[in-house]
Amino acid sequence: MxxxxxxxxxxxNQKPAKIYMKDGSELPLKILNGRPGYINFLDALNSWQxxxxxxxxxxxxxxxxxxxxxxxxxxxxxxxxxxxKHIYFVDIDAELxxxxxxxxxxxxxxxxxxxxxxxxxxDICDKATALYIKKEVSDGIIAPGYTxxxxxxxxxxxxxxxxxxxxxxxxxxxxxxxxxxxxxTFEQGxxxxxxxxxxLSNIVxxxxxxxxxxxxxxxxxxITLKYTQSNSVCYVKDGQAIxxxxxxxxxxxxxxxxxxxxxxxxxxxxxxVLSLQFxxxxxxxxxxxxxxxxxxxxxxxxxxxGEWQKWFKVKPxxxxxxxxxxWIKTQTGVTVGSDAFFPFGDNIERARxxxxxxxxxxxxxxxxxxxxxxxxxxxxxxxxxGMRLFHH
Length: 392
Known about the structure:
The longest helix is centred in the first third of the chain and has 21 residues, at about 40-60. Strand 11 and strand 12 form a beta hairpin. By secondary structure, the protein is an alpha/beta fold. The two termini are about 30 Å apart. Helices cover about 35% and strands about 20% of the residues. The chain folds into 3 domains: about 25-165, 3-Layer(aba) Sandwich (Cytidine Deaminase, domain 2); about 195-265 and about 330-385, 3-Layer(aba) Sandwich (Cytidine Deaminase, domain 2), CATH 3.40.140.20; about 280-315, no CATH class. A 6-stranded mixed β-sheet has the order 3-8-7-6-4-5. A 5-stranded mixed β-sheet has the order 12-11-13-14-15, sandwiched between helices.
């Protein structure tokens, strides 16, 4: 297949639309089911690059959950705890493979943003992963292959219209890439910059103790940022992104957005949230929405009489602002990456409130001294990578 005709482009009025190889060669992918659209392919190709690099950098099966050309979550295939299984809606006795764990974690970073996602896997999609995806609202998946059982499960999704794409894992893009904007062609070298532990060797803070787990998490953060619409900041813990702030004009707004998402993720493991008694037959997206409202400042919207009965068997006790604040204070060991330098120490202050202990950013601001001083105040470890990771 040298080209594939799309129904339309970004919007229904943008026709004709297609994907193809400029040199006339075959596309490095196969469409095994469904008919992916323009944005589907943007998500597919960006998410595939992310998971492929994560696997190469960490040696672990990797997955991503993409929406609107940015990751809602990304993760490596570490085992799930019982609490993880609870908050990600996994049967306690489910048999999970590493690649299934990777996707469950990626999906679980921000379940609201992952609604209707595009899934990406670094490894062959197996039955365990397909069975989990089957229960979620998702638009499609890209992977280097599928087991026979997994493919049959996915083909049944969305009334047989679920998009399944197979990518050639050995495909290497041309060294130069081009795109047209307003009839003008832009050309640049493909971003082949390699992100590894050597990038974290320039530690600029007084505290220079960077544990192995934090190294791994910082690498995950930076690779995630490489494929996130800039400006962007990413919080990572225990092998998974827990908050991605993408596409903001101000760096502090990226940090706040990602931090709020990290707080939301952590609130799901609060004892009051874990003990919520949902009505029988509630759908997964409705359960996610209920948890999101319950843990937010708008909790009264779901706890008022005549409303709570739609969601819960027993009316929950409200989470007070003080309870939420005290719970979030117990979060620690979080790593934070930024795709460009922090211009002020306020970014460090905000990250600290969500448990940040380890930071990676390019450095190069005229206020680097202020940023370092702020990190030192809280005994953080911060590395200057010297490399910007903008993605547009």
